Amino acid sequence: MGISIRQWRLSDAKDLAAALSNQKVLNNLRDGLPYPYTDQDAQDYIRAVLSADPDQTFAYAVCVDDKVVGSIGAFRQENIHRRTAELGYYLAEAYWGQGIMTQAVGMLCARLFSETDLLRIYAEPFATNMGSRRVLEKTGFQLEGILRSNACKNGQVLDMAMYGLTRERGDEIL
């Protein structure tokens, strides 16, 4: 199984739409994504990331044997946090539990620390999302704290877990 991250292509829209038209996937993401997620939604997203500032938005398709099975991105923050990026990702349900996202997170973090001036990458999964938390821990992220009552999702108030990886730690792990 060849796992890779690569630049998005408009031809990826169908696979992207299939991955996001799943309520279990959407339940672990922030609000704002339509359901069902259409091919047009996917094309609009792909066009947006392809036209984004490449020093601010680092968005890639997660692929298995060049088939899109998910998405990963890091987004540079602003002002005093300009050398920090927030990490986000998701994987189509059929590919959960196979180590794919762990490899993709490692690939992206290594790329960002070697090719940019970023000092820190952080992620904030819902505290109940143990799969995502394991991905972060396996790739060297440190749990920095639990953000209590930090989100409202599907009518519930949820805690979020704050994980961080710094350039120095990334050099050790990745």
UniProtKB/TrEMBL annotation:
Top-level taxon: Bacteria
A GO term, aspect molecular function: acyltransferase activity, transferring groups other than amino-acyl groups
Uppermost EC category: transferase
Signal peptide: none
Acyltransferase among keywords: yes
Assigned keywords, A-Z: Acyltransferase, Ribonucleoprotein, Ribosomal protein, Transferase
Ranges of residues in domain N-acetyltransferase: 3-165
Cellular component aspect of the GO annotation: ribosome
The protein's Enzyme Commission number: 2.3.1.128
InterPro entries, per the entry: Acyl_CoA_acyltransferase (IPR016181), GNAT_dom (IPR000182)
Name by which UniProt lists this protein: Acetyltransferases, including N-acetylases of ribosomal proteins
Organism: Ruminococcus champanellensis (strain DSM 18848 / JCM 17042 / KCTC 15320 / 18P13)
